[in-house]
């Protein structure tokens, strides 16, 4: 559901809107950042923790690594690797809660 090939500022903002609509309590905590390269070709690696309280009261906890490429401060590529099984289970809880609320 959150996997996407997003192009443009508006599409990126919409993607975040969708994430926060699905997981309204989601929080991201950066634990490490590594930056390499000149301004015209910068690589950033980020390690982060993700957590949220799900609709059933349980906790969603995940860890991710994000690989970003920038050119003169503009985003070229943003690749995130996380435990997709944990994410899938969290989304199933949210979907089930949304379905019963209708």
3D architecture notes:
A 4-stranded antiparallel β-sheet has the order 1-2-3-4. A hairpin with a 5-residue loop joins strand 1 (27-36) and strand 2 (42-53). It has 2 helices and 4 strands; from the N terminus they run H-E-E-E-E-H. It starts with 8 loop residues before the first helix and ends with a helix. The protein has a single domain (9-100), classed as Roll (Nuclear Transport Factor 2, Chain: A), CATH 3.10.450.50. With 102 residues, the protein is of the alpha+beta class.
Can you tag this structure with a few keywords?
102 residues, Nuclear Transport Factor 2, Chain: A, 4-stranded antiparallel β-sheet, 2 helices, 30% helix
Please give the oligomerization state of what you see: single chain
**Cα-based radius of gyration, to the nearest Å:** 15 Å
Q: H/E order of the elements? A: HEEEEH
Helix content: 25-40%
Question: How many helix segments?
Answer: 2
Taking pLDDT < 50 over at least 5 consecutive residues as the criterion, the unreliable ranges are none
Backbone shape: elongated
Strand content: 35-45%
State the end-to-end CA separation. Answer: 20 Å
Biggest sheet layout: 4 strands, antiparallel
Number of β-strand runs: 4
Classified by CATH, the class is: Alpha Beta
Query: Which whole number gives the mean pLDDT?
Result: 92
Q: Strands of the largest sheet, in order across it?
A: 1-2-3-4
How many separate structural domains? 1
Structural class, by secondary structure, is: alpha+beta
User: Do you know the CATH topology?
Assistant: Nuclear Transport Factor 2, Chain: A
**The CATH architecture:** Roll
């Amino acid at each position: 559901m959150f996997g996407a090939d997003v192009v443009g500022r508006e599409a990126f903002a919409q993607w975040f809107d969708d994430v926060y609509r699905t997981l309204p309590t989601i929080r991201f905590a950066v634990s490490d950042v590594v930056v390499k390269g000149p301004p015209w070709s910068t690589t950033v690696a980020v390690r982060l923790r993700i957590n949220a309280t799900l609709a059933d009261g349980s906790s969603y906890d995940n860890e991710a690594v994000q690989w970003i490429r920038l050119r003169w401060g503009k985003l070229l590529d943003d690749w995130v690797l996380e435990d997709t099984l944990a994410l899938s289970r969290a989304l199933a809880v949210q979907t089930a809660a949304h379905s019963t609320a209708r």
